[in-house]
Amino acid sequence: MPDYRFTNDDFKVFDIEGLEPRMTELKKNIRPKLVKIGEHFSDYLTEITGDQHYAHVAQHARRTVNPPDDTWVSFSTNPRGYKMLPHFQIGLFGDHAFCMYGVIYETADKTAVADKWLDRIDQIQSMPDNYVFSVNHMKPEKAPLKDLSDDDLKAALVKLKNQKNAELLIGKSYLPSNSILDNDNVFIYELEAVLQELARLY
Questions:
Q1: What's the DSSP call for residue 148?
Q2: Which residues contact 25 (CB under 8 A, 6 or more apart)?
Q3: Which class for 47: exposed (0-12), middle (13-18), buried (19 or more C-beta within 10 A)?
Q4: Do 10 and 27 contact (CB within 8 A), yes or no?
Q5: SS in 3 state form for 69-84?
Q6: Are the C-beta atoms of 45 and 21 separated by less than 8 Å?
Q7: What is the pLDDT of residue 1?
Q8: Which terminal Cβ of the chain has fewer Cβ within 10 Å, N or C?
Q9: In whole angstroms, how large is the CA radius of gyration of the chain?
Q10: Which residues have CB under 8 Å from 83's CB, separation 6+?
């Protein structure tokens, strides 16, 4: 059984009806991988950023009825949580895996992050053509970053700065058929490369 990469069976977990049946399979098949991914990449992010990073594996503990549509491990510099800070995230929905960096609506100081990214807007614009962005971390939809014009990107960052519920995450996504998911070592190497790229926004 693969230690890190996500398999077709992992993606199919999100087809299971009901909270308890889905969570049972998620805990059995996916969570052990997220723990190992967390162990590896918390060390990696600490190394490349120079700041201690901690892994936070999604527990979905507050759910009482609806099963989760995705799951993940997030990385932040706070050992107690990640939502209040810009953070890296590796995980999967039912139709794709992802590796992202950004801020969500719960981030404490989005204004400072948005100002920093506005100053570094050229670094976002120069990211690879196959990178994507999301404006809602709870939904699977992601759009190609290259489709954002300079004005659109600036507008998204201004919105991030001024609107309390605005979010912006940037990274890369992978369909279940992507050959990168065929081998643990290839998967890890790919994610290391993406995180290295995203660390420019850190």
A1: S
A2: 13, 16
A3: exposed
A4: no
A5: CEEEEEEECCCCCCCC
A6: no
A7: 62
A8: N
A9: 16
A10: 104, 106, 107
CA distances from 68 to 25, 60, 71, 156 (A): 12, 7, 7, 27
Helix (H) or strand (E) holding 89: strand 87-93
CA distances from 96 to 39, 40, 62, 128 (A): 22, 21, 24, 19
User: How many angstroms separate the Cα of 5 from the Cα of each of 14, 46, 113, 133, 180?
Assistant: 16, 21, 31, 22, 9
Average pLDDT over residues 34-58: 97
Query: What pTM value is reported for the model?
Result: 0.94
User: In the predicted model, what is the mean pLDDT of the chain?
Assistant: 94
**Six token digits for residue 18:** 């009901």
As a whole number, mean pLDDT of residues 13-25 equals 95
Q: Angle at Cα 132 formed by Cα 101 and Cα 136, nearest 5°? A: 65
Q: Report, as an integer, the average pLDDT of 63-84.
A: 92
**108-138, pLDDT tens digit by residue?**
888 999 999 999 999 999 999 999 999 989 8
